[in-house]
Design a protein that fits this description.
Layout lengths: L1 H14 L16 H4 L14 H4 L1 H16 L8 H25 L3 H29 L2 H21 L1
């Protein structure tokens, strides 16, 4: 009879429906504060995220949700457009720095610029005089040459 009992046990085990979704083994042990209702224990609470609780974050999140419902999602600019805008900003900043550097010239630089301007003016005046002499009639040139020779002749005997 002992053989019959064994056969019945194996048959009854095989006929039981198997669970199609086996429960996974629990790797971590359950904490003891769940089972015990001990009033002396301090139960852990989830920490409050200061960013999410801030008013600005909540307003921004609400606005993003509203825009998403309306279909007004934030526009993503193409990468090329972003790069071009960044280059333009950098160029403007560089120009501003150069202008500030020019404004902050030292006394020596200012004095050198003044002298350079004076020299340029003198050169322009000399060019104008030469052009006038070249365009002047022949008799005016001869008269100028005579005056120079007369002045040289009067100065030579004196010295």
């Amino acid at each position: 009879m002992s053989e019959g009992c064994n056969v019945e046990d194996t048959v009854s085990k095989d006929t039981e429906p198997k669970d199609p979704y086996p429960t996974p083994r629990k790797i971590m042990a359950e904490p003891d504060y769940i089972d015990d209702d001990n009033p002396e224990l301090i139960r852990p609470q989830k920490l409050i995220n200061p960013v999410k609780s801030s008013r600005n974050h909540q307003d921004l999140h609400r606005e993003l949700l509203m825009n998403q419902k309306r279909g007004l999602a934030p526009q993503n600019k193409p990468e090329l457009q972003k790069v071009m805008e960044k280059r333009k900003r950098d160029q403007v900043i560089k120009q501003q720095k150069e202008e500030e550097a020019q404004k902050k010239k030292s006394d020596l630089e200012i004095e050198l610029l003044k002298r350079q301007q004076k020299l340029e003016q003198l050169e322009l005046e000399q060019q104008k005089i030469q052009e006038e002499q070249e365009n002047a009639p022949e008799f005016v040139k001869v008269k100028g040459n005579l005056r120079r020779t007369v002045q040289e002749a009067t100065e030579a005997p004196d010295s």
